[in-house]
Amino acid sequence: MLELAVFLCGAVVMVLELTGSRVLAPFLGTSIVVWTSLIGVVLGALSLGYWWGGRLADRRPEPKLLSRLILLAAVTTLFMAASKGLLLTFLLHKSSLGVSDMPLNMAGATLAATLILFGPASVLLGMVSPFAVRLRMESASSSGRTAGNLYALSTLGSIVGTFAAGFWLTATLGTTNIILCMAGVLVLASACVHRGDALGKLGALALIVAVAGTLSLYDARLQSAVGLFDLDTSYQRVLVFSTQSVVSGRETRVLATGPEGVQSAMFPDEPQALAVPYTRFYRLAGHFRPDLRRMLMLGGGGYSFPKYVLSQPHEFGGQPSLDVVEIDPGITAIAGEHFGWPGHPDVRVHHDDARRFLARAQGSQPYQVALMDVFTSHYSVPFHLATQETVRGLSQALDADGVVLVNCISAATGPRSRFYRALLATYKSVFPRVESFLVGNRDDPADFQNIMLVAFKSPAAPLFTSPDAELQAMLDARYEPGPPHPGDPPVLTDDFAPVDHYLLSL
Known about the structure:
Layout: H1 2-28, H2 32-59, H3 63-94, H4 106-126, H5 128-136, H6 143-172, H7 175-193, H8 198-226, E1 229-232, E2 237-244, E3 251-256, E4 264-266, H9 277-280, H10 284-288, E5 294-298, H11 304-311, E6 321-325, H12 329-338, E7 347-350, H13 354-361, E8 367-372, H14 388-397, E9 398-410, H15 418-428, E10 433-438, E11 449-456, H16 469-475, E12 478-479, H17 499-504
Parallel strand pairs: 5-6, 5-8, 6-7, 8-9
Antiparallel strand pairs: 1-2, 2-3, 3-4, 9-11, 10-11, 10-12
Helix pairs in contact: 1-2, 1-3, 1-4, 1-6, 1-7, 2-4, 2-5, 3-4, 3-5, 3-7, 3-8, 5-6, 7-8, 13-14
């Protein structure tokens, strides 16, 4: 039974580490900084556990002690489930400059979160393998085989935990339920090592049930009070909730996959309207290509713009056909359930990676317009969709006068403008003409905001006037970035695209 305990503890380590990305995502994003902190802290904690467990096992090679260490790991895992919301909310505010008197940068906040939430359990789980080796050691002549067998079992458990978490658990049970289940698995592993301390093990199980019931009741109250839904898909953790628009004061249902802003929104009393300001700039597609027949949209989100196109076909050349590429089927399901996405025969949804779709689309009927909105949050950008290779794929998918509209989250000038300047240089390396429009603060280009890049495959000057007052206001938001200078970041490529660092101003 000791071998089973080693296997289970190895599995729990990897399940918790992979689930950790879902725990942190709504508060700290899913950038490379988050993954670096998570992996580094877990590895460091395991190393400490190996060292400490080996020393402790030499002094007290007792199954009862190892059983209690694993039971303590179950309790610290339970603490993770119970405290993650409060701790991460606190750290989110601490990492927002101007909100707190003692702000942390994103790297500091992520390190603090991973140390507090995942450090204790990882240290205790790291103690298991060396302790088990000491308990199974019979003679020096077989010590190598004993250690190899047990560490192989632990690693095999980690492999099973990795595949289980990545392919099944995260999309089936949800983040909190996974953590609670892992606490229960550790209680079972503790019992496998030593059958005594029945009262303590039953108490731990009762505590798990109590925490699970409390958190379930709390979630139910949040759903009824503010319409909050905490959802997990195969690709990400998604929060859907109701709030009040800061700009209009209207009730708004939003979809968020990361901190600092929302990825999609809808007015419940007007589902077809464009509730997020930057999405209204996609209306420029019909202005720049009034002969629009085929449109490509990379990134579906809440399907706000496809709904708008269906409700206002006269703005887009009649009733254009629209291909939407959304990698996550779960997002499409959420859009149907919470954001009024009805589906339509003129809108074809492709659940695929945008880069792979572009590669497969070569040689097919060209598009007149492509819309790029694949940025999952302010701090988490799929780097491979911002590179020169992707931009070339977009260009090849368009006709001779094709237009690309790209949502960029950055500042236009100053130290926080590196992502915008890199993306602008990347599109200019492929398209002969690229224009910029400031969506948020038109009077302050140094302000962190949405910027709409519009790339033209034709070098001819586009029309910057419109009889439509709203469109004209958008055209008037045109920004002239000026000529490049030596300090500008280089063109983004598959080989070098540090977009996370640009956005985090590291």
